[in-house]
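Bumping my old thread because nobody answered last time. Still need a sequence for this structure:
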């Protein structure tokens, strides 16, 4: 004989007890807790115990994620303006994260996300110049999210190259978006895609790589 009662978060103390055939039976609780993605809940009942078993689904426990890159060259036409870093390629297996309007990294589900960007800077001038990357959330600059590097000048007949990596964590609502912005103090600085190598063979170097993961 079970008495069922629904709790919103977790089982609380059972106040009602029933004496049946000389034995005290406590009331039972149906735990109304919703499992996350790829998490399985299984509840079993005895006359006085509710047991909740939590396990990973067949695909393991996965958060929402996205992987993106760009294979074009991105330049600044004026040193007094900010530019959105664009992305033209998405991983076919992305789940819950997409790029809208070329630069808006958009999440379909509310959560805390970590977003990281790797930028391949190139400078073809004999003068070194600074470049800055920062984050905008829904069109507004995120405070304290900027990072600055100095992109080397040409040397030994080669352009100056520098990889910059920036990572942030942000709490996002469904349909919120992030953009990585950039600025350079010289128009000779660009975000450049470099060709694959031949000796030895190695892959093409995208101008930008972005990864987004739910925390």
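Sorry it took so long. Here it is:
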């Amino acid at each position: 004989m079970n008495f069922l009662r629904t709790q919103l978060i977790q089982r609380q103390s059972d106040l009602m007890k029933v004496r049946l055939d000389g034995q005290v039976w406590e009331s039972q609780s149906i735990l109304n807790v919703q499992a996350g993605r790829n998490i399985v809940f299984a509840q079993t009942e005895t006359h006085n115990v509710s047991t909740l078993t939590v396990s990973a689904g067949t695909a393991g426990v996965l958060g929402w994620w996205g992987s993106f890159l760009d294979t074009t060259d991105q330049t600044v036409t004026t040193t007094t303006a900010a530019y959105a870093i664009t992305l033209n390629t998405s991983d076919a297996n992305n789940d819950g994260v997409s790029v809208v309007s070329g630069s808006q990294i958009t999440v379909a589900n509310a959560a805390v996300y970590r977003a990281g960007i790797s930028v391949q800077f190139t400078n073809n001038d004999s003068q070194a110049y600074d470049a800055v990357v920062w984050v905008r959330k829904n069109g507004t600059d995120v405070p304290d999210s900027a990072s600055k590097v100095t992109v080397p000048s040409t040397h030994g007949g080669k352009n100056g190259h520098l990889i910059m990596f920036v990572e942030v964590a942000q709490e996002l609502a469904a349909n919120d978006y992030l953009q990585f912005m950039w600025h350079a103090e010289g128009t000779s600085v660009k975000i450049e895609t470099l060709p694959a190598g031949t000796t030895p063979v190695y892959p093409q170097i995208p101008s930008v790589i972005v990864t987004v993961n739910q925390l």
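The longest strand covers residues 111-123. Let me know if any region looks off to you.
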